[in-house]
Amino acid sequence: MNPGVHDMLQAWGPQAGHIASLWNIFLVICTVVFALVLVALVLAVRRAPRIHTQEPPDLSTVNVPEPRLHRTVATAVTLAVLGLLVLLAASVFTDRALARLPLKNAINIEVTAHQWWWSVKYVNGPVSETFETANEIHVPVGRPVVVRLNADDVIHSLWVPSLAGKRDLIPGRTATMTFQADQPGIYRGQCAEFCGFQHAFMAFEVQAQPAAEYEQWRQLQLKPPGEPGDATAQRGKMLFQSVSCAMCHAVQGTIAGARTGPDLTHVASRRTLAAGTLPNTPANLASWIADPQKHKPGTNMPANPLSGADLAALVAYLGTLQ
Ligand SMILES: [Cu+2]
């Protein structure tokens, strides 16, 4: 189990493995070429004839055929072309290897990028089994995942370095990427295409879980949350549906069905708030709801001037959305 890696040289799945190998080939070849160029430079400097102001220039070597020099240059050019061809071939083969991930029994996910968060929709099987979450992608270990990518506003790019390469999300176009996680763990992802003010706070996580654990999580996500037990949380639910929240957010099983902000049906089960900006704790939740602009200036959620009691009730309610 890894503790949340974000490192393209630590590959935790086949796709990232292919890319890391390609990176290593580039590193080796480019290092060798760089070293050879430096050696040639040093030799050239050391062997160059020295000029003195008193002596006339030595023109004896001009117009003398230099077959050795010609051979050396020809060899260097050939080696350079061969090196480039090896790099080209390695890139092409990596591309083909990436396309060859077996997709049998794959999990299908639709990710839509928004300024500055990710909506994640699971679209396996019948419509009754689709559900939506945000900023957290759960996948079963060892099963291929097919992600369809859309963007809502500007161009974003989805990148989980330890699992797969980057793929742009372009408004009006659908792209696809595939990956597989070979080990359970948490893999950090990040938007990799500058998309505006809070681009740096547009992170997410891929949580790879053993099959049984994933299935348990999936069953939980499919269920609308139960009615809150205590009076404060119940009042929070009323507030959620009567103040502005329901205009932008959805909670399955309630009248809140808007899609402007993240689906909050199971917000309490997530590890972070606002695309990896804050750990999901009651204090952070309260602070976020009261003034999101303090944590993520420019974000598309307005501040909510609520009384302390109302804020506490909302936080209590959201805390029940496991
Ligand atoms: Cu982005």
Can you offer a commentary on this structure?
- Helix 1 (14-47) packs antiparallel against helix 2.
- The protein has three domains: 13-99, no CATH class; 107-222, Immunoglobulin-like (Sandwich), CATH 2.60.40.420; 231-319, Immunoglobulin-like (Sandwich), CATH 2.60.40.420.
- Strands 1, 5, 7, 8, 10 and 11 form a six-stranded mixed beta sheet that branches. The chain has a five-stranded mixed beta sheet with strand order 4-3-2-6-9. Strands 12-13 form a two-stranded antiparallel sheet.
- It is elongated.
- Helix content is 36%, strand content 20%.
- It has 322 residues and is an alpha+beta fold.
- A hairpin with a 4-residue loop joins strand 12 (272-273) and strand 13 (278-279).
- Bound molecules: copper (II) ion.
- Residues 113, 116, 156, 191, 195, 199, 202 line the site of copper (II) ion.
Descriptive terms for the model:
322 residues, alpha+beta, Immunoglobulin-like, 3 domains, 6-stranded mixed β-sheet, 5-stranded mixed β-sheet, 7 helices, 13 strands, binds copper (II) ion
How is the main sheet built? Answer: 6 strands, mixed
Within the CATH hierarchy, at the fold level, what is the topology of the largest domain?
Immunoglobulin-like
* Helix percent band: 25-40%
Number of helices: 7
Question: How far is the N terminus from the C terminus?
Answer: 24 Å
The gross shape turns out to be elongated
The molecules bound to the chains, other than polymers, are: copper (II) ion
